[in-house]
Amino acid sequence: MEQLHLNVSLLRRRVPNLTKAAKSVGLRPATVSNLCTGKISVGRTEVRTLVALANLAGCSLDELIIQGERYEMIETGIKSIDLFAPLAKNGTAGLVARPGMGQLVVLAEIFHRLKNHGYKIVLLHPEGDHPEVNDLKKDLDVICYTVKEAEEEVQKLGKAEDVLFIADRSYVIKGTIVKLQESWNDLKSVTTFLLDLKGEAVDENLPYGPLETLWHFDSDLAARRIYPAIHPLQSTSTVLEGANLEQNHFYIQQKAKKHLRRYKELRSIVQVGGMDPLSSADQQVYKRGELLEAYLSQPFYVAEPFTGVKGEHVPLDQTLMDTRKILDGAEDHKLAKELMSIGSLL
Asked: Which domain of life is it from (predicted)?
């Protein structure tokens, strides 16, 4: 049976303020967001929900629902991203984080890595004074200060090159991003990154509208300085749909998410009463969850001057192999601190 998914780009063009529109017809914005990123499958969605979305977009169900198309994954070598929320090529990725949680460092690292694979990187500079954006500038090819300039530069580069385009959420609110993306339909590929320099996105549903990739940052991980602080359960991607993933990736990813979900529940118990209240089975779950959480931390190349720790690139196949080892108990003899800020398992 062919995989079904929403035509996210059509929704983005037709319904730029999807949160407000969804509420107006009785749809939960969180449900719509999960449908867009593939966290909820179209095949298991109520027909009335799909009909309501089609009505909002002014299209037919056949236009809203795409059959059989595969999303290509851009492998970053960043374990937590490639495992839980792969970057969808030629899609739109939104970052949800409060200031200080490391979203700019993650972006800078991705740009550093992908630039080495031939990607051209264009930034539409945010309006106002944002000195923190300087952290991204090292690997940029073009910095644009007007929307018109951004349109022209991406058009010029994108005819023969894969492009990464970055913009602040303020341009989403104005409707600028949708118009820009409409002008880039005939280019090789333009993968868009949307960030929120004000940190307001965490308090809103669908802060960027429909997305192919969502990276939600975890305040608990950031507080414990476990970086990159990508939330393994709230981050997701259209690439996660079963038809787009290799079977082994899908199986291990789902197993890891289930394990980490239970581990996070147990953490609140352990923080109050220690390990004694846990059954032997739950103690094992907690131990392996702690190991996996530590393993998913990773030193970055762009942070080397500040941490003194060499950056690490971990191929997806290695991440999957290591994750399975941890979940199967092969690393139970180790302490979590031994897996903190490493690349692959030693």
From this structure: Bacteria
